[in-house]
Request: fold
Amino acid sequence: GGPAFGWSFWKNCIDSYRNTSPHDGYHILAKWSKMIEDKYSSISLEKLNEEEDEPPKEVFFVYTSNIDGHFTRVPTFQDRVVECHGSTLFLQCQNDYGVDCTQGNKTWALPQDGLSNLTVDPKTHLVSGKFPLCPGTCNMVARPDVLMFGDFKWVGQRTSNQEDKFYHWKDGVDRLASGKYIVTRKEDEEQKGEDEKNKKKEAVPFRPTAYFPEDSDEEDVDTDITKGVVVEIGAGTTIPTVRHQAERFCEMTGATLIRINVHDSHPPYADTGSFWKKKTEIETQYECLSLPLGALEALSVLDWLIEKEREGLVIDDEETEKIEKEEGAEK
Ligand SMILES: [Zn+2]
Reply:
């Protein structure tokens, strides 16, 4: 044990996270977020019931189990992320048993040069030098603010702050999804004459078509605006925290699930409660698009499709076939 052992691992890990820039997938997600934000600002929401809470201000949120802090390095996501296992860009007190420290329940940012005075012995791979210290009364070597396996000393203060914000937002999306607001397109509002303004407005829930009121004309409703999406990227099945979040969100809001996973992109299953965890495929209340691809590959393909649609191009089978052939030839 000892700090040298732990920090030998962490220094290597954190150095490599810091020396890698967030890949293009992050920027694709940031671009999409901006697009959704623009759409959202093109509609106005009016409370059906005066006592209802306000609609959510934000239209996207990131929930990640990654500890590399890459999402917080992309300005778009900086304040809209839950790092459910913490972040290696932050430190906390060791919280050694029996030691009462003033920083015991706090986390703080790891300075950019925080590990520069640690050197790795090429033979033993152990580090020595100036370890980052807890600024509290314990003055012991600090540790990363990351949830480790069977870890009871994790502070997770940042994470719980992030979660508070996330759950608050999720409640707002739930209200949107259950049709608590009247949705109108701003451009329509401007075009409306006085007579139109006096007409009874119709509630349009933030839901897939199945939930639209019977007498509403579905074709009049911009489904791009009214339908949410969850992009689940490479979420594991061993500790399925992220998967559960994604599935529950879709169940709650009727959003479409895009499941990107090279090995395990199957649609959600229901647990039958059996000891052997035998699972049965169930029909979900939401759509699931299963993409057995790597993160960057899947995001690039989806982005390409979105761009094509924005350009007004119709993708026909012939064109798809042609592209597939070209890509096949490249490989
Ligand atoms: Zn301390």
Summary: Confidence is low (pLDDT under 50) at residues 198-224, 272-281. Residues 93, 101, 103-104, 134, 136, 138, 140 surround zinc ion (CB under 6 Å). The first helix runs from residue 3 to 19.
